[in-house]
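Tokens for Serine hydrolase domain-containing protein. Go.
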Amino acid sequence: MTKKIALSFLILCTTFSAFAQTFNTAKLDSLFSVLEAKDKYMGSIAISENGKTIFAKTIGKADVAGGKEATSATKYRIGSISKTFTACLIFKAVEEGKLDLNKTIEGYFPAIQNASKITISNLLNHRSGIHSFTDDEDYLSYNTKPISEKEMVALIAKGKTEFEPNSKAEYSNSNYVLLSYILEKIYKKPYALLVDAKIGKPLGLKNTYFGGKTNIANNECYSYTFDGSWQKETETDMSVPMGAGALVSNPADLTKFIEALFAGKIISQKSLDQMITIQDNYGMGIFQVPFYENKGYGHTGGIDGFSSSVSYFPTSKLAIAVASNGNTYDNNQILICALSSYFGKPFKVPSFNTIEVKPEDLDLYVGEYSSPEIPLIITIRKEGNTITAQATGQNAFPLDAVRKDVFEFPLAGIKLEFNTADKQMTLDQGGMKLVMTKK
């Protein structure tokens, strides 16, 4: 549900290499050990190959104040991974003859602008043009309170549209809230029951369900952000995100789910082929996940202080899922380490050691840096005894000094190395190195 710093999406690699036959779990174990020792991450990972778990790890706490440790049974809010479940339910409805992907939505939501032009298919692959309600400035003023379908549809309708239906694609949580309401209308059952009856129970996903108020006694966990110490986040009421982000699960269940999806145990191969057809970077409830020459499919999720990801690489029959309830180190970096360990790629485990830099020395780095290779300007500013970086149109993020002229932002795996003599800065992220020049 939530947005991430755009730079974090630059990291998955596309160069060539050979397939590795062994899985180097030692490096992944090492990463989790340092994350735990440095208190950088709370969460869980599960990796399976051909349906068999080959790695699992959980660190951190489910309840910081109560001192309850997280375990492999801990359940997390999975945010937008819920969309993949919703898309599966829509395709099941199509297969059951209850829905047509080409059907327009004016019969369900006449108040939505362009409803007579927007199809079910457009909602699925984010080509509807409907404004995403989570982008509104007042979203955080109501997201913790229960909301009815009538109220939610009115909020979405008020947002108007961003572009003509099917003219392009743009991510919108509104699309999947509307899809969950459509499912409830055609089945005359709550979305929560549909997820359980059509996906959860048939696949034996005992830890996956529509969320409610967090229940620590039921192996659920609170979420946190870090501000010198772990601070508990507020909880979104799940009536708000519905099929766009209301599910609870854990990595073990998520790997089972995505394996079942690609094994034809949820929807037909014909439906899956439609689901994974990528147009303008979007499938239907799923994205493509490239890693060197390996092509996977999956989805990420973020809600409150939770973040999660699940992906599947069909050629290797490899499923990976991570879920976190608090981190200052990005899930994407953990995935890169996991995939690098599996496919035999280089990956350096961070130490998170920092050095002190005199405030007056920081002035040497301040300025705007650009490169003809990317349409971004990165602005470096001094803030007290540290510096921050801000890419065009993005939030600023703090940088840790790790050695002379080298700074890192571990959450997105970003390293910036300055050459003050030549007025240059090298952006290093996920194996990509880009030299940028100071204006």
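Confidence is low (pLDDT under 50) at residues 2-21.
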